[in-house]
Amino acid sequence: MKKETLQKRTKIANDIMYYIYTHIDTHIDIEELSIDLNVSKFHMHRIFKDAFGKNIYESIKSIRLQKASNLLLTNKLSTISNIANMCGYSSQSSFIKIFKERFEQTPKQWRIGGYKEYSNKILRQSQKAMQSTADFSNLSPQIVKMPSFKSFYIRNKGYNVNIKDTWQKLHTWVLTNDIKSYKEIALFHDNPTITPLNECQYIACIVPDESENIKSDRLPNFNIASGVYARFDLQGKKGDVLKFIHWVYHEWLPNSEYETTTKPSYTVYKKNNYLKQEDEFDISFYVSIDF
Q1: Dist. CA 134–CA 34, nearest whole Å
Q2: Which of 6, 221, 248, 288 has the fewest CB within 10 Å, making it most exposed?
Q3: From CA 44, how far away is CA 28, in angstroms rounded?
């Protein structure tokens, strides 16, 4: 396959996935999307499945259920029907049926504690996370309003060792384009304490400062959402991050009286362990909140 064709197909697949994530609370019209992208529905489905290993409808279903599973824990004042609507379901009964198929328990059972064992199984998929002795009980966030960031990115399928290769490719792109001033950001479209690690979408992003004039056909770009976030500053070693995200969603958020939204959380690296020999990180982690 020619380089130009591969880049075009990659952009279409990424555009579809980005659209799904940013419109997950609405009815997603595949026909309308194919018109917007100027590609036939047949071609669009084939490109997407080649890129992500599952079809568009399966991905929509999976993302909706993951968002709902988060909101059931954090949005205590929202009814199950409210949460179903927030995630694009028009029928509560169909939502309950599909939720039970995925998580082997009803939304109500999940909400009152069933999530813990399910989530612990995910955590056990990471040997490093299980070895982590980090304690976050005294950690408290700053509440901040963040602007939107234009980012150039590579999407990594899986929360796995391939992330290091992805960051090295991005670093190569930075050096090739002589970019001097930029941020390194990881976007967690999927919550790796609820979604199996090999299915997580981890987005490694470079956010050049506005002074940089970047034009790139090599990497796709999108805007990281503005909004109100809880920011946690954290230092540690590999394995601590997964354990930390587990704590944020299952300890801090449910007890904080804040609600979360369908916007993805993200990490800003001050020290990126994927690009360092010593495997240590210094990050700010942002989780979208509402009150």
Answers
A1: 46
A2: 6
A3: 14
φ, ψ for residue 161, nearest 5 deg: -65, -20
Tokens representing 183 are 């941020």
Which of 117, 55, 111, 113 has the alpha carbon at shortest distance from 84? 111
What pLDDT shows up at residue 2?
Answer: 65
Domain ranges of the chain: 3-123, 142-290
Residue 206 backbone phi and psi in degrees, to 5: -110, 125
Nearest 5°: CA angle at 251, between 136 and 272? 45
Q: Is 178 left (phi over 0), alpha (psi -120 to 50) or beta?
A: left
- Domain 3-123 is in which class? mainly alpha
Convert the pLDDT of each residue in 198-229 to its tens digit. Answer: 888 889 999 999 877 777 777 888 889 899 99
Q: Is 247 helix (H, G, I), strand (E, B) or coil?
A: helix
Structure tokens at 197: 């690690």
pLDDT of residue 170: 95
pLDDT at 110: 93
Classify domain 142-290 by CATH architecture: Alpha-Beta Barrel (3.20)
Total residue length of the chain: 291
- In the Cβ-directed half-sphere of 81, how many Cα atoms lie within 13 Å? 2
pLDDT tens-digit series, residues 57-70: 888 888 889 889 88
- The rounded distance, in Å, linking the Cα atoms of 81 and 83 is 5
